[in-house]
Amino acid sequence: MLRCIVRLQSQVGNAFSLSKVCPRNQHYECVARYSAATAERKRFYQDVSISQSEGGLYEINLDQRKLKTPGGKLFTVPNEALAIAVATEWDAQRDTLKFYTMHLTTLCNTALDNPTQRSKEQMITAALKFLETDTICYRVDEPHGLVELQKNEWDPVLQWIEKRYNVTIGSSASILGPEIPEATKDTLRQHLKSYNFWSLTGLEYVITQLKSIVLSLGMIDRHLSVEQAVLLSRLEEEYQIRRWGNVEWAHDYDMYELRARTAAGALFVHLTSESSTVKHKLLQD
Known about the structure:
This protein has helices at residues 2-12, 27-36, 80-92, 103-113, 120-129, 144-165, 182-192, 197-210, 213-220, 226-233, 235-244, 248-272, 276-284, and strands spanning 40-42, 48-52, 58-62, 65-66, 76-77, 96-98.
């Protein structure tokens, strides 16, 4: 398990902290401000360790001090694997703590503090909203090269998810996008209800990174790798870069950052999942 966590964290980077509470109807803006309030800070500890409380939860210790959330709660996670992953983030920091790179810590803080006070049902509704504007459901009608690229790369993923969940999604070049049947939304809603609150927090984070519930489920279900999902989410941008060129360092940095955030979200979902099947797959890799 530890080898698996370290390998995935090589893509993840590390995790960032949260700090403000905002109105419920401004969730995504709130999370951005909540996570970026303290960008950097001088490292104030030497050793990082984990311990298990009497209730069975795991805590993170910075020297002799227990880590707390921005909301003042004791920082606790449901299992040892996630505790090790978070502790690794804190231990990997150098002289300066770069909170904006500590994605797993951020996701834990979000789940613990729930800064926008949303219910699980509200989170599911927000996730399903992305289906109406899903990246791979919106197609161009020109140029021909991009049309063919989208068809060749995105259609197999759409076919997979439609077969996997027995739903109809489709694609469209119309500005209105495809009309998603209510039966499809109901099926996916039932599927998302099978996630616990922590796993749903991670899944929603992945969806916001990829702008696609289809690609996110494809990755969480292990049909796509992190690299594949990120590349497919940037297909049009990559096409334009190949055609017109790019700013060398900027493209690589953006790609690395998106991979890190997406990998962190995927790892978080797997480590907080109550599904023994998911955990078994993670251990196998």
